[in-house]
Give the backbone structure.
Amino acid sequence: MKYSLNEFMRIRLEERPVCDLLLEGRTFRLPDARCLPVLTGIEEPVDRDWLVARFSRELSRDTDDATEFVDRLVESRILRPADSEHPLMPEVRSWQQYGWTDALIFHCLTEGRPYSDVLGAQAPEPAGSVLAKRIAQQEVPPFWKHLPVPYQPLPPALDYPERDLADVLLSRRSHVAWSEQQLTAEQLSRVLRDANAPLLEMRCAAEQDYRTSPDVLMRNTYGDLETYVVVYDVVGLEPGIYHYAPDRHALGLVEAGDFRDRVRTAFVGQKSAGSGSCSLLISAVWERHMFRYANDPRAYRTVMTIMGQFAQRYLVAWTAFGFTTFPTPAHHPELTDALLGTDRFEESGIYLITAG
């Protein structure tokens, strides 16, 4: 029988190389790096005797030891019979044809993992007990972000016009002309207040109760998100970039000026991104999210899902006032960092909603 190398495997170059079998969801550690020239040299199907001879020579082992090692490689599926393939390989090739190999690797690595925040655990532990241990070992990340700048309280919120909810939901569109309305600080106040109402409630509860009920941190759904407001043409506010503090219902000026062109450039040249009356830029604070979901890389998916849920609140609120909206996640991370003054490995601006 002839054998081939596993078709979809990641090799990590550690002191003892690690093979991640992405489709099988299994990981194996090789004895040492001398195995790699043999494995990576398998470009065509080879027979068992060839494998035994090569590993015997490379690893300086006798034939019996090399034979046992080859058998383990076959059993683990690092090596597979050349006349068969994993049933998902046709789909893998489809992803690769679209240039989605990196996405597929992440998809496989975060799929089918045990739902546990404890390394090596066979079953999930209650979130409360896991978080209680974590809280005892390290400081909980700050619940609120406040920049060292003056914060300007937003004016009283303006009421929405009388509209049926179904009409609001069904009328939301992205690719239409901007409305001819003038956006005011009072309308912006209402949008920010209403969209952030559940964030404020859940974050306050988490801050108050996490010591006695640690699992309240898991119910702090939007606790890892921040909102920045880029003002272009809003009555009552000077143009510039502001950080929104939901606990104060106030805006802190990050930098004054006209940022239309920089927003367009940061969001891959999309003209609509820097048009309209203002843009809301939602960011994720990674330490807060990682503290809640330590040892679970699948949680990277979670924050993106939460981001989309939160963005919908803004979209509906803007639509209720009759404004046009343009949402987009397409951006250049370094340029978005430069706008917000953030480091994308600590906090990343991810989703933009322009309204006007």
Q: What stands out?
A: The chain has a mean pLDDT of 91. The radius of gyration is 26 Å. DSSP finds 13 helices and 15 strands in the chain.
